[in-house]
């Protein structure tokens, strides 16, 4: 039951992580890795660590030839660019999993406002399914275009979705304080991600302006069935991988941490990759390092009647490439843990 | 106009930073460094980096002999232990600056609840002045016992105090998300501060239970003149130094970031160590590294009508030893920048 | 063709990495994890990151009961302690792979001198096979007691063994400058491995005194068939994983880097996990992160007629647990890549 | 006795560190900071951490106007570019301290070979004094053009110079294994210094090809009075600051570590910034962090009759800007510790 797979944008960190994870997948044959900037090169010339394990020559984007035999195409390209290639692939009937932000926002206007870019075409936008399996598994299964969620939205939403069923919770009270490892900023060279600038430094960025805000709000609006405006502050922290979201929600009724934990556990009963901690135990990003897990802790502060929710993922795995493969598994009707059921690397 | 100074607890990180900073102070003679655990040793045997620069033999605590000539005593001891030594020193009429939590909380009961320890004696507690110069300069000037603020409270309060004059702000809406470097946990060996556990890891701790909560609330209550309950979540981040507090406050009237920035700047007009950023500019902890500065940024999110305040300090300087020396300067009527007016080390 | 396996010392970093890697092994059933200090606990209580993936209750060492069904036992215990448990397991006929230093040195006196400990019993010492597959594959295949090599010796020897066939090379000219990540020091709390002490710090330790010196010399003596005395300086560097050995060898004849590279490649022709770089390309530890690879670079300095050899491994994988599993594969006649053929995690 | 000083190239890391250190210097007035790329800007717009402390507007290079009042000019420019500006300043009679590699190598041919650049003019080259105070103090005192040493050469030479008086030592047996923090690579963005690439990575670079090789050899040739060819391998390590050189020298007579330590101490008797450790004690880079010290340890391996010398500096201080100020002090006849006599920052 092998499928043929291509990765477009294979030399960025998302594409590279796809290659690492797909190599462990028993039902996948990686047929082609496409890189505009490095086409013609052997992958191991750019990334010597791939030598002997994954030997591919980087292809140019030549949709008819390169993708002829391919069943599924992963797109790991910058937002604004991805949509054009996806559109071409879909015309040829390919199943697409897109890791950019191009197909996540259903309202074209929101995309324009937050991404400062032209939105994807209407048809694709409409057909795209938001690829958060814990929310959309049934739709993903039938989809041929999955919009893989952003890294922060994955961590945030998995921590917040179950709150919709708690009486009296106003989703607009949600405040999300996000901390990311530097790989989240990608491979492009910037002063902020120069080692000497980000080492020994914790620094907020895009305060109140991050393009993941409307993505989180869109999903919360679906879940809570009302308009939502949240506050979100991302921070760059001196580590390579990992996202931790600390989230604050105002309660209006009395509820204990234990009750919420029980509720979260039953909410995620069928979700292998979400693990809810016992009361008093809190995950760090290292607890999910290199894995597809999202670990969640919940604390209720009775003094302020606020819930503090902590959610940890590996930004390159559950926050990007691992989740994309989880979606591939679902689209194919395979156990969604296939190829992803590894222990986090610790330490 | 030299004063004679002793440091009690000189081999912890707070004491060590005192020694580093006092060495640069033109009016201070460091007469004695006291260390219970290492008395009799030369400081450079424990810390070879001090060789030739600060040559002292570690003294035992022997108040009458060791402190005979001393005018000011810095105590850098664990909470619960410090109070006893301070009490003895005060009986001999010494001026004391205490870096522990023992004299910060005015209500003995709060100390018992949060520190799980016996509070200091009533008289000392009553006479102790909370050593945040930007709030209490006049009282510090006349005080003989300064309770040096905690690291998180310093960053948090400097970011929050000016909000008391903004109409309609409820201090109980305050949420503080703190990130600290590992030196904040001190020199004691713990699994959480073992390199392999804290490297490549961002992890919350003491969620809703940190002993700095009542300290922050006490000062906010004074400033806002009403009861205050805040939410505070500290996080351990993989760096040696630095604290960044990201703070969220609900607004009830319309106010712009520019207006708030103006207000903060006039609020801190006479405070050399507080620097308020222009709109759109945000500090990281590296911007204050090794210095006594507190850099503050303010952003208003008109979508949610919330203010996001970012405050960055070096936890060992403005968050501990630097502020203690600032207090020494004030107690002596010196320019409070004396010995502290250095550029942050960057990178 | 499944074998039943036990890990003794499962809560140290070596044991933990064994559990991570064994979980990916298709022919292994992990029957028991033994921990003296934590017996009775669920593994996920100590290591929450293992939750749901590897669910085991930690056993006490009770050889007859615990190991009854087990075919292979991995020992990840401190040197000096391991030998006693191994002896017991061998009396019951178990196949043993020992990760400590107890069975590596053939001369009991050397063990006493460098480990300051009583050596293992003569019979075990004699029967133990040094588990460096690239040198000893045939013997490992027939062995029932494998002494898994040390982390530094693995990196050093793979870089040096092929030099024995280069004419005129005196192995006593070898100088090894080793750099390790902090996980090499294990999970025990020490000041040197406290985050604040090892972060932003590169520091040599055990200069000329490291217990891996006689291990490296013993193997070089076998390979070069002469007495060998080398110089070795290990350094602690601020990262979690990785060992890089930079090695210097005096040449006496003219030889080019290209010739040496050709020679190394043919030397390692059948060794899947050794990758020799093209001239001018040099590995960093990140190139082998999380994997069982050893990447090697060779440079000839014609000005000094010295060879510089660089060898990089992940200290916990090829330097410990990965190599132990490679040995398990060989002992069972399986492809030695089984369960280990993963891409290094990058970045 | 104040002198007026300008810094040319003030926005690179070397220039920035000059500004930090000069600010603490009691006899220096920083009159002008010159930056080609950022002229017209306030320094704090580029580096907000300088706000309020050092308020300067960046000047363009306009030698007659900008330098009119200036007595001493520090050049912190790339090699190949610096020479032209220095030549101009010298024509106007300015005293110059150059931090580039342009005036270090006395033989123009060597400069061409290793820097792949046109050498400086003959007269300047001839008059330039190599600014290693511990070797050249007397010449520096009389000089008007100081070639400030490279970071690696500073650490290496201070560790090696005293060996010239040890009988039977051949300087061509010297092997230097260098480890640097990433700030040594400067502020230019490169993939190798991107956080995600250098974090959790130790990696050699320019193996046998680093331009500091001829600089080290030139000075060793002077000291040993014979031709010298050394081996040098630099490594990038995941920290911001610090250089550690581990050096290996073959002995031909018997000598103990204690004897060498005594010799080193008497060799450096008048050198405040060199500290030689007791036998058995070894410095890490953290022991000299932020300071102008060079800490040295010496070990003799009687098994191989080799000396291992460890030398640690802060690459931006003793390895660059601190040493430049030490040279300024010497040129002015001031105590060379002036403005530099601070405790290393620890932790």
UniProtKB/TrEMBL annotation, chains A, B, C, D:
<dbReference type="InterPro" id="IPR036291">
    <property type="entry name" value="NAD(P)-bd_dom_sf"/>
</dbReference>
<comment type="similarity">
    <text>Belongs to the NAGSA dehydrogenase family. Type 1 subfamily.</text>
</comment>
<dbReference type="InterPro" id="IPR000534">
    <property type="entry name" value="Semialdehyde_DH_NAD-bd"/>
</dbReference>
<comment type="function">
    <text>Catalyzes the NADPH-dependent reduction of N-acetyl-5-glutamyl phosphate to yield N-acetyl-L-glutamate 5-semialdehyde.</text>
</comment>
<keyword id="KW-0028">Amino-acid biosynthesis</keyword>
<dbReference type="InterPro" id="IPR000706">
    <property type="entry name" value="AGPR_type-1"/>
</dbReference>
<dbReference type="InterPro" id="IPR023013">
    <property type="entry name" value="AGPR_AS"/>
</dbReference>
<keyword id="KW-0055">Arginine biosynthesis</keyword>
<keyword id="KW-0521">NADP</keyword>
<keyword id="KW-0560">Oxidoreductase</keyword>
<protein>
    <recommendedName>
        <fullName>N-acetyl-gamma-glutamyl-phosphate reductase</fullName>
        <ecNumber>1.2.1.38</ecNumber>
    </recommendedName>
</protein>
<dbReference type="GO" id="GO:0005737">
    <property type="term" value="C:cytoplasm"/>
</dbReference>
<dbReference type="GO" id="GO:0051287">
    <property type="term" value="F:NAD binding"/>
</dbReference>
<feature type="domain" description="Semialdehyde dehydrogenase NAD-binding">
    <location>
        <begin position="4"/>
        <end position="143"/>
    </location>
</feature>
<dbReference type="Pfam" id="PF22698">
    <property type="entry name" value="Semialdhyde_dhC_1"/>
</dbReference>
<dbReference type="GO" id="GO:0070401">
    <property type="term" value="F:NADP+ binding"/>
</dbReference>
<dbReference type="InterPro" id="IPR058924">
    <property type="entry name" value="AGPR_dimerisation_dom"/>
</dbReference>
<dbReference type="GO" id="GO:0006526">
    <property type="term" value="P:L-arginine biosynthetic process"/>
</dbReference>
<keyword id="KW-0963">Cytoplasm</keyword>
<dbReference type="GO" id="GO:0003942">
    <property type="term" value="F:N-acetyl-gamma-glutamyl-phosphate reductase activity"/>
</dbReference>
<comment type="pathway">
    <text>Amino-acid biosynthesis; L-arginine biosynthesis; N(2)-acetyl-L-ornithine from L-glutamate: step 3/4.</text>
</comment>
<dbReference type="Pfam" id="PF01118">
    <property type="entry name" value="Semialdhyde_dh"/>
</dbReference>
<dbReference type="InterPro" id="IPR050085">
    <property type="entry name" value="AGPR"/>
</dbReference>
<feature type="active site">
    <location>
        <position position="151"/>
    </location>
</feature>
């Amino acid at each position: 039951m092998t499928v043929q797979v291509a990765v477009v944008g294979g030399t960025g960190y998302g594409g590279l992580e796809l290659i690492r994870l797909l190599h462990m997948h028993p039902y996948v044959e990686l047929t082609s890795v496409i890189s505009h900037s490095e086409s013609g090169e052997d992958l191991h010339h750019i990334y010597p660590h791939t030598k002997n394990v994954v030997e591919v020559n980087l292809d140019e984007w030549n949709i008819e030839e390169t993708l002829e035999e391919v069943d599924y195409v992963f797109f790991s390209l910058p937002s604004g660019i991805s949509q054009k290639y996806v559109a071409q692939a879909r015309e040829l009937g390919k199943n697409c999993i897109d890791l950019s932000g191009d197909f996540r926002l259903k309202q074209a206007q929101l995309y324009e406002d937050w991404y400062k870019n032209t939105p994807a075409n209407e048809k694709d936008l409409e057909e795209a399914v938001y690829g958060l399996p814990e929310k959309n598994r049934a739709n993903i299964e039938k989809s041929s275009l999955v919009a893989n969620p952003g890294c922060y939205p994955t961590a945030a939403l998995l921590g917040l979705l179950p709150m919709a069923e708690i009486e009296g919770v106003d989703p607009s009270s949600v405040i999300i304080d996000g901390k990311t490892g530097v790989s989240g900023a990608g491979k492009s060279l910037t002063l902020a991600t120069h080692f000497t600038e980000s080492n020994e430094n914790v620094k907020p960025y895009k305060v109140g302006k991050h393009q993941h805000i409307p993505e989180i709000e869109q999903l919360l609006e679906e879940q809570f069935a009302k308009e939502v405006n949240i506050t979100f502050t991302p921070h760059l922290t001196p580590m390579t991988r990992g996202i931790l979201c600390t989230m604050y929600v105002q309660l209006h009724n009395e509820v204990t941490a234990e009750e919420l934990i029980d509720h979260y556990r039953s909410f995620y009963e069928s979700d292998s990759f979400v693990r809810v901690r016992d009361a008093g135990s809190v995950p760090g990003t290292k607890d999910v390092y290199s894995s597809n897990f999202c670990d969640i802790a919940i604390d209720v502060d009775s003094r302020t009647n606020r819930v503090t929710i902590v959610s940890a993922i590996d930004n390159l795995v559950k926050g990007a490439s691992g989740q994309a493969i989880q979606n591939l598994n679902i689209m194919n009707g395979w156990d969604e843990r296939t190829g992803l059921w590894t222990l986090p690397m610790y330490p």
